[in-house]
Sequence to fold (233 residues):
Amino acid sequence: MTPPAAPGQEGQPAAGSVQSLYPFLYQGSTDVPAVLDQVRQSTVAKASEIIELRRVVLGRDGPRLMECAGDIAARFAAGGRLLAFGNGGSATDAQQLAALFLHPGGDRRPLPALSLASDTPVITALCNDIGVDVVFARQIAAFGSKRDVVVGLSTSGNSENLVRAFDEAGRRGMLTIGIAGYQGGRMAELDSIDYLFVAPSASVHRIQEAQTTVYHALWELTLATLGREQVTP
Fold:
């Protein structure tokens, strides 16, 4: 008796293969209107998901975003800096957050901000000589002061190097802000985080989209607060 063909055998595309992910690319003919309709439906569904997630975050954290921005502004007014960090896509978000403060556009004053995920020689040296778990904590120990702000981004909230970074920042009296996904992960258990904003979703894509909204809101609210205050040179 011949056993059933396993996935990937006898013309069946293997799970996870390009053909299984995009079967219409391998069909002899393609129903273009049907494909476009699928794309439209998918786009509408994803847009609806992120709109709802942003609504949830705003409803839960709106007042805390205002309070947090006020505390950030106070640190800048006292001569502090912002240090941002994250892994992978969150490292890119950390870079963008630092760039927003450094280059706010228009006639708004640039503010000192640094992405701790951007210095390749430092990161690779620490990873090679000590371990990836210390790549942010070591930089905070070197650069951080009690006037400064740290912002750590993670979709899972479980990254060990973020946990260590927050603990180091907390010991130094820095203002600590976490932006996470899912239910916050280990970041939700830390006493060293002053403000934690969580995008409660199981989709990494939606989480990162909502996180982008959170830190843009913090940036805009901080600038609005500083516009009414004198910043120490």
